[in-house]
Prior knowledge:
Blueprint: H1 7-17, E1 30-35, H2 36-48, E2 51-52, E3 64-70, E4 72-77, E5 79-80, E6 96-98, H3 109-112, E7 117-122, H4 133-138, E8 146-154, E9 157-164
Amino acid sequence: MTDPTTPEDFDALLREVLDEDYQPPARQNCTLAFPLDKVRSIAELAIAARKHALGPGDPDARPRLWWIKGDGTFLMSNGINNTPNTRDADGNWHHIVYADNWGPNTDPSTVLGSEDLHETLDLTQPLPDGQTLIDLLRTAPNHATRFLLHTSHDDEGTALTMTTE
Length: 165
């Protein structure tokens, strides 16, 4: 057997073990829905924090949300405050919001691909339409209950768009 040093080598190794027809899960275009009130809450936590954690590839510390896929898929505030991280009455972390139907113990690889994912969503930098993400969240229509993260994939990578409904 070969030493899996690249994703292609790893896929070849899996085909040897599983079946010659094995293909890794492909990323699909999809829309993830998150409870808007909870996303707004963790975004405000990041905005209000005096310190911010750096994620992979973040060039500087400023208010951001991180979109993470691993055990489920969720948004997480990078805001650091001086109070201990606490959980709510249901046992969930206050600074994390799971996508609808993709909570702990779910495997989003069928939609988002097989590798773990970390994407940074800057709250204060303008989006393509000129509005910032924090403004999008703060000015959502009164009837809106969901923050939607739309993903599309091509040879160039992943494109994200964000809306509320």
